[in-house]
Amino acid sequence: MIGKKLVSSLACVAMMTCGTAFAQQKGKLMSGPYKGPMGPVTAADKADAPDAVFFTNLVADPCNAGAKYSANNGFLLIGPTNCGLAGSTQWLAAPFTSKATGAVTKVTLAVTNWGICTPTSNKYTVQIYDDNCLGVPNNPLGSPVQATAAAAPPALSNANFGTTGPLLAAGVHYWVVLTTNTTPVQMGTTAVWWEANGQNEPFNINDGTGWQTGNLGGVGGFMVQ
């Protein structure tokens, strides 16, 4: 993910706030594991996506009660008056390659409230960007839409583009970009884009303890339709 308007320090720090850890890694604010109340995995969460899917990394994990993403780690999506790190703003973007040609109607995202405090807003902006082949988003495509962060994992939030979504071409690289604008309704957003399942990959340090899970900071879970 690429964060815009990030805290400038590159030092790794960790802090405990209301029982939930966050860390700064390479200038990006990470959430640590979700510590609040968890909702159930519903039938809707488990259902296959209908119609055309341009991209998805939301895959049900049988080892995680069938949830389509992990709440063990994620990147913060916050406005300047957020309730956890007041004064900080962080935007996020994730790349994908379209598997089909057509217009975007909906983006489903593993975005929920952070859970360490009660935000004054749970709104954020979603837009599709094209790619500049330099590892960052290039130009916005179509109009942005406002989405609502779900209350808690494993729920998903939706950005509904309806009939006005941008046209994608199969095999072309794009970005899903999440921002918090300067309107009061989004300045207090305090959310997390949780990692897709399988992003924390096992490794073996060969010390007799077996496979260990490394928090590698994987991309957030999402589906573009």
Describe this structure in words.
The chain is mainly beta. It has one domain (13-35, 50-198, 217-224). The protein is 4% helix and 40% strand. The chain has two helices and 18 strands. It has helices at 43-46, 184-187; strands spanning 13-17, 20-25, 28-30, 55-56, 69-78, 92-97, 102-103, 106-109, 111-113, 123-131, 137-148, 157-160, 167-168, 173-179, 190-196, 202-204, 211-213, 222-224. A four-stranded antiparallel β-sheet has the order 4-18-8-12, with no helix packed on it. A four-stranded antiparallel β-sheet has the order 6-14-10-11, with no helix packed on it. A hairpin with a 6-residue loop joins strand 16 (202-204) and strand 17. The chain is globular. The relative contact order is 0.26. The model is unreliable at 1-26 (pLDDT under 50).
Total count of helical runs of at least 4 residues: 2
* Order of strands, widest sheet: 4-18-8-12
- Please state the overall shape, judged from the principal axes of the Cα atoms: globular
Order of helices and strands: EEEHEEEEEEEEEEEHEEEE
Helical amount among residues, as a percent range?
under 10%
Q: CA-to-CA gap between the ends?
A: 20 Å
What is the number of strand segments? 18
Mean pLDDT: 82
For the sheet with most strands, the description reads:
4 strands, antiparallel
Give the DSSP E fraction (strand runs of 2 or more residues).
35-45%
Number of domains: 1
Radius of gyration: 17 Å
Uncertain stretches of 5 or more adjacent residues: 1-26
**Given the helix and strand composition, which structural class is it?**
mainly beta
